[in-house]
Amino acid sequence: MYEHLETAENPTTLKRVVVDPVSRVEGHGKVTLLLDENNKVQQARLHIVEFRGFEKFIQGRPYWELPVLVQRLCGICPVSHHLAAAKAIDQLVGVDPENLTPAADKLRRLLHFGQVLQSHALHFFHLSSPDLLFGFESEISKRSIIAVLANYPEIGLQGVKLRKYGQEVIRMVSGKRIHGTGAIAGGMNKALSKEERDYLLQDIEQIITWSAAAVALIKKVHTSNLPYYDDFATIRSNYLGLTKTNGALELYHGGIRAKNDRGETLVDHFDYCNYTDLIHEEVRSWSYMKFPYLTSIGKDQGWYRVGPLARVNICDFIDTPMAEAARVEFKQHSGEAMVHSTLAFHWARMIEVLHCAESIKTLLHDPDIMSNDLMATGEKRYEGIGVIEAPRGTLLHHYQVDENDIVTKANLIVSTTNNNMGMNESVRQVAAEYLSGQELTEPLLNNLEVAIRAYDPCLSCATHAVGKMPLQLELIAADGQMVDKLVRHSDGRFEH
Amino acid sequence: MSGTINIDGQNIPFEEGQTIIEAATAAGVYIPHLCHQPGYTPHGSCKVCTVNVNGRNCSACTFPAVEGQTIVNNSAELEQDRRRMTQMLFVEGNHFCPSCEKTGNCQLQGVAYHLNMLDNHFPHFFANREMDASHPDILIDHNRCIFCNLCVRASREKDGKNVFGISGRGINKRLIINSDSGQLKDSDIDVNDCAAHICPTGAILIKRTGYQVPIGKRIYDHHDISEVALMEEREHGK
């Protein structure tokens, strides 16, 4: 692989090229390259330059705050944090996943499918489609969703509307598109009303059609650019994720399965409550993000990838028919037991979008989501662990509380952390195979970002306003002069 | 005895013994407030209900209505004063509305929205305040206490106890518990006491009940605090 490019021998003698910030990803990261006099890459690193501190400052807070507090980690996939924390605090009130009421379980799944759908649509259409449709080294003015809407209006609009639908699912279940409530310890705080269910049902067939079109689009883009798409940023790795008991793709709750690069099972149906026996994290001085690895294999060879590519790779099947057919085609294209192409993340991601759309339809026809039997109870415990398959991969929340219900210890292993080594390896592969020895230009450097973007890393968060909050929006020109102002008063009035 | 006062040009009747805020509320005129609650001895500590009476600023919750008063309630200057006082309350404590379980039901947040508070204006104190989670059913988060004294009054006047008190002055002011250990678990508060439910912010909470009311069903989700206060407090006055 490309580990030899992690640390150069004589860094002070080398020329430094920095891509800062990495654009069209969530949060803040940068790439550094060290080049010798012949522009040969000697070192390539993806640095995560932000520090959040959530694990520390949630200590001392009451546990029931956790699902609402920790979801503020992110504005793109807050539902994943909300649900992972909820699964953990379920255990604190003595409720295991299988003991949730059917209504609560299905509402949480519906919420999560809406979340994965919108997050994947956002990533594919808003962030990555410019690269895929215009080429990795296209002119910079084309590298945005605006250019996609101008040149491929139908595709761009479908992406925007797919995301909107996912957001609407979230709003119906949790009260808000971003940072709602919903999951509480032992269940949910509301069922779906018939009106809310009917509102979501009216568009679901269209959403399934558009999701299938998105799979067809990425399949066409990928297969028309072979072997380039199979080679670019591609690395062989282990893969890890949750699966159902029957081996099906699972996003909300299951056991951990890991397979190696040849498709051999390393671990299966592993109870995530024992995750410390399975995974360790290594700290490296040059990044705030840790490097997890499978303990049984060791830190050199035990790193793994998570997320759509991992999930579609490790599962035996998908339990919705259209997504399953797409999965079979996907696996067949590589001719190997596992698909290693990093750009195939996009393809797998759209297969999951289709799975989410099909699953949302099934759940919307299930009367349980309108049942008010929402809460389960049990005996208090002092430790809770929740694991979920977030859009970007396996997400783990682990909390301990004292006798007064106060959090004393927290450990969060977020999806992107699991892909840290994978992203770094892909960056090094691109640096070594596509950039090394060339005069580096801005479009050429975008190749590095394309490699990172395939993983859909979430490096950060966003925050949003609530309810009747007054807001003032000012448009300031480059010279500092205010061009326009829009005010929303607390009574809902708008003033221009 | 009864009479008439004039608030912002509107003649409003009052009864003997009523304060300005009581007469205004009965007539459907909202004066922003936090430490005032019908049925409790007026305290006059938050100053958010400041109005101008015959040219002089007074707390509407403590000032008696007197025949012939000309009162200004809604003016840009008073709104600015009230906004600044509310901003001071925010920066003195640690109020993180996005994750607070009282959000949507919080009077401090509701008043801030009503006053079009867009930022904190003042630098944060980042006060180092602690939580008292010792009681099995009641939690005190001192970060969110605005020293309105409502819990003190509720415990004394409604519950017949003396669980709470305010100690110290200025930035050393703090809510204290009447128990040997200073902890709530050793006091005689009960989860059904008025004092456990009166807090206008998220400082005194009933444990394990947070977020049970979904978004859309919370008190201020669809109604400004002025509407809610007038509806509830006029009902109380009947």
From TrEMBL, chain A:
Binding positions for Fe cation per the UniProt entry: 77, 461
Binding site for Ni(2+): 74, 77, 458
SUPFAM superfamilies, alphabetized: HydB/Nqo4-like (SSF56762)
Gene3D superfamilies noted in UniProt: Cytochrome-c3 Hydrogenase, chain B
Superkingdom as given in the UniProt entry: Bacteria
Cofactor: Fe cation; Ni(2+)
Keyword terms, alphabetized: Iron, Magnesium, Metal-binding, Nickel, Oxidoreductase
Pfam families (alphabetical): NiFeSe_Hases
Binding site for Mg(2+): 55, 412, 464
Molecular-function GO terms, alphabetical: ferredoxin hydrogenase activity; nickel cation binding
Family, per entry: Belongs to the [NiFe]/[NiFeSe] hydrogenase large subunit family.
Name of the protein this chain belongs to: NADP oxidoreductase
Organism ancestry: Bacteria, Pseudomonadati, Pseudomonadota, Gammaproteobacteria, Methylococcales
Automatic annotation (TrEMBL), chain B:
Pfam family name, one: Fer2_4
CDD domains found in the cross-reference section: fer2 (cd00207)
InterPro entries tied to this protein: 2Fe-2S_ferredoxin-like_sf, 2Fe-2S_ferredoxin-type, NAD-red_Hydgase_HoxS_gsu, NADH_UbQ_OxRdtase_Gsu_4Fe4S-bd
Coiled coil (residue ranges): none
2Fe-2S ferredoxin-type domain: residues covered: 1-77
Residue intervals of the 4Fe-4S His(Cys)3-ligated-type domain: 77-116
Family of the protein in this entry: Belongs to the complex I 75 kDa subunit family.
Keyword Lipoprotein: no
Protein name per the record: NADP oxidoreductase
A GO molecular-function annotation: 4 iron, 4 sulfur cluster binding
Tagged with keyword Lipoprotein: no
Keyword field: 4Fe-4S, Iron, Iron-sulfur, Metal-binding
